[in-house]
Every structure is written in C-alpha cells, then in structure tokens.
Amino acid sequence: MTIRILDVGQCGVDAARMAGIWQTKLSATVDRCHFAHDALERITRTRYDLILVNRVLDVDNSSGLDLIRDMIKSGTSTPVMLVSNYSEAQKEAVALGAIHGFGKADLDKFSTVELVKRATSSQKVP
Q1: Three-class SS state of 73
Q2: What's residue 121's pLDDT?
C-alpha cells in the first residue's frame, strides 16, 4: 500500500526537496497545496497517511498553527505534523493535537525519515 502525504504551505524549493526524500526513502506519493482552505477541503475527500504543515504558509503567510488547530477541530484522524525548526512552535503544535514534527534543518537526518515513516505506518491497516 502506497504512503500518501499532504504537504501544505512549503515554498517550491522546500516542497521539491521534501517530496524527493519521501518518494525516494518511503516510496510515498506527495500531494501539495498552498492554502489552508485547500488543505481542509482535500482532507475531506482524500485519505492521507500524514499531513505536513509549514509553520508559515508560503503564499499568503498564514499561520500553520491555525491550520493545525482547524484540522484537529475538524476531527481528522490523520496525523498532522508541523514543519518548523522552532521548538516553541513544535510545542504549540503538539498542544493543539499534532504529533511532534521536524525542522527543515533536519531533513537530511536519518531520524527525520524515521519519524515520518513511523507517523505514516501508524495509519496502515494490516
């Protein structure tokens, strides 16, 4: 079964870099969107194994933490993870109901791939 990730609010360079990692290391399919309303609509019609949300969405500079709050309030069962190097932002995301994420500075680390792998494998039905 293919892993499916929704990536929200990353700039083009970061989105491509992350998608390449998830595709190569996890054989994942990565869907991308820029706006909170698009992400909220997508999670109602597509089953994802993980949602990655940038701290600040790239196009409109809206808050990724606000989006995480809205996703959790919507009742999604999909794990949501914040992409941010700021520990305070990670703590806030976890307090909202997200699982602890990672920063872009850690993208090349084995532990980051393992973190994403564990988050996505928790959604797989045997």
Answers
A1: helix
A2: 83
